[in-house]
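Practice problem: predict the structure.
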Amino acid sequence: MRRVTEIGEEVLRRPCRDVTEFGTAELTALVDDMFRAMQVAEGAGLAANQVGVDLRLFVFDCHDGYGGRHVGHIANPVLEQPDPRRRRLIEDVEGCLSVPGATVVVPRTEHAVVRGFDKDGAPLVIEGRGYFARCLQHESDHLLGTVYLDRLAKRDRKEALRQMDERREQVFARRAARAARLEQGERAERARTPLGG
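Answer:
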């Protein structure tokens, strides 16, 4: 199980390197590990540097707020900048797995488009609106070494850090319990599956 990095760790503050080797067992394993870590932490998205790997890659399992669910991954994402004349900012509550327990209002555009590649090197264009657009922007920021606290006024940043201090241990306890349940379910599944099956 990969540990989710926390604010203050250097890997979160530097731009990540491009993925240069596609279609490898290592990249597939990293994507799988990231989905598992995101599931345990109850997140909607997770960037590679949030598990200590400085590669431009993120995974997502996110509802958009309009009835749609989006599950996938993208390597070397480039977030398209919207036309400033048509850009519509929405203020909504946002959290981050690397700032455990804190939720604050962050303005983001209501629509986002990210271009990149899947783990096998095939080109991808991912378009999102609502909460999914927020997720695409949040994870793209991570890969540039930016966390959502950087988008906040000083007062709001202090409030987020206060919330983290207050709730951090509860969040970690919940994650540990979830990881144990997941591990137990996987062991039971392996016991039911015959070898070679």
